[in-house]
Every structure is written in C-alpha cells, then in structure tokens.
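Lecture notes, continued. The same structure-token format from the folding unit now serves as the input rather than the output. Read the line below as a description of shape only.
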C-alpha cells in the first residue's frame, strides 16, 4: 500500500501526455534509490519482477501455481502490500508500480519475509491492465491512498475515474472485488460516486465500508486518526 504523502510515481490519475500522445496513469517523480533497494532489485528482481509486454500474462506460470490473484495499483514503498501477502498466503498478489525505490523496497520486504506469492510489474497500470491482464482474470484489486490531487483545479488528474473503473471491472471475475481507500473526504465522495456509477459493480455497504481486517493501518494513518482525520474504505464487487 502507499499513502497519499509517500513520494511515488504510480497510483496517479490518467491524463494526456502530449510528449507521448497517449493516456498515462501516473506522474513520474524522481526518488533516491538506497543501497539496500538497489541490492534487492539486483538479487530478487529477476525472480519477482515480471517484464511488461503487450501480451496476456499467464498468471499460473508467473506464480508457479493456480490461485486467486489480487492486483494492486501503486503500492508505494510496499509495506502494506507485503503485510497483506504475508497474511493471505493462499492468494497471489500482483503489484504495479513505476517508482523504482518503491519496487526496491517491496523486493527487500519480499526477501526479509520470505514471501513467494508476490510479483511486480514496473509499468503504467493502465497499459498493464489493458494488455497483460485478461478479462475476468482477477479475484480482486486494491487502490490504497492514491494521490488526492487536493487542489480543485487538479481533481481531474485523480486516478479513480470512470474509464479506469470500467477497465478494472472488466478484469474482475464475477464476485471479484475492488477495494479503494483514501484519507481525503472529497476524494472519498468522488470515489463513491464513480464506483456507484459503474453498472458492473455493486457496493458491499451502505456508502463506505468498514476497514477490512486484511488491510493493516499504516503509521501515517494511525497518526491521522489520532488527530481526528478520517479514512474512508470502499469495497465494491463485480456483479
């Protein structure tokens, strides 16, 4: 997982990039790669990082087993992703992130916790979903604390908008779920509206959902809760 204040480059909204003439789902941000992260990329990357390709990914071959697969967009530094994967060993987790220090950080956690059910694609999530993930291939999808773009003039850059939600819904198997979380109330309201407008999805709650047990509370989130800040979870399922 990533929080909205962690420097990262994925989990960003789709916008038009005039230099590349395509829709992108992120804004690239520079970040320092630590020695430990670099070592993790060198030693563990070949096993746990999957190359982007404009071909359908064989999930069973990628993970070495058949199991329900959960995709996460923008896992930041990977602490929550690793914790969830460790707590749900019977499921596969595919993390999509473009921020190299975040990839290195999650690889380091994979090594420290001896996790075998995680794979990473370092690429734009929209392209990964479009080209690599087959329709109805996912048991679930996580989008935790994407950049809120809190200034009103930047709201259009937010990740959770109709086109991406429609794409995500098409990749969920019937009964699969989409779990979003944010600590910005106006973004939560937008998420609720956009998700409710997607005809392929059904809300599991009357509005916002209780935080599922599998999503741990981050240090940043705990700090905000102590200060009285809200956190909103939304859990929708594919009809």
């Amino acid at each position: 997982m990533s929080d909205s204040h962690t420097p990262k480059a994925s989990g960003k909204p789709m916008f038009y990039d005039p230099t590349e003439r395509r829709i992108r789902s992120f804004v690239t941000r520079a970040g320092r790669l630590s020695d430990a992260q670099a070592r993790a990329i060198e030693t563990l990357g070949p096993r746990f990082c999957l190359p982007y390709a404009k071909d359908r990914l064989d999930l069973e071959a990628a993970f070495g087993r058949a199991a329900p697969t959960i995709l996460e967009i923008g896992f930041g530094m990977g602490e929550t992703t690793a914790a969830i994967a460790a707590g749900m060993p019977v499921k596969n987790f595919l993390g999509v992130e473009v921020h190299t220090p975040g990839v290195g950080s999650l690889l380091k956690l994979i090594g420290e916790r001896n996790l075998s059910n995680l794979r990473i694609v370092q690429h734009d999530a929209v392209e990964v979903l479009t080209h690599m993930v087959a329709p109805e291939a996912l048991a679930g999808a996580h989008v935790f604390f994407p950049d809120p773009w809190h200034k009103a003039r930047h709201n259009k850059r937010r990740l959770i908008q109709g086109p991406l939600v429609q794409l995500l819904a098409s990749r969920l198997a019937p009964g699969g779920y989409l779990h979003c979380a944010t600590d910005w109330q106006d973004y939560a309201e937008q998420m609720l509206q956009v998700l409710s407008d997607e005809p392929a999805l059904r809300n599991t709650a009357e509005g916002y959902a209780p935080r599922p047990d599998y999503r741990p509370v981050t240090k940043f989130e705990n700090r905000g809760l102590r200060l009285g800040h809200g956190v909103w979870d939304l859990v929708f399922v594919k009809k």
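Point for the exam: The radius of gyration is 17 Å.
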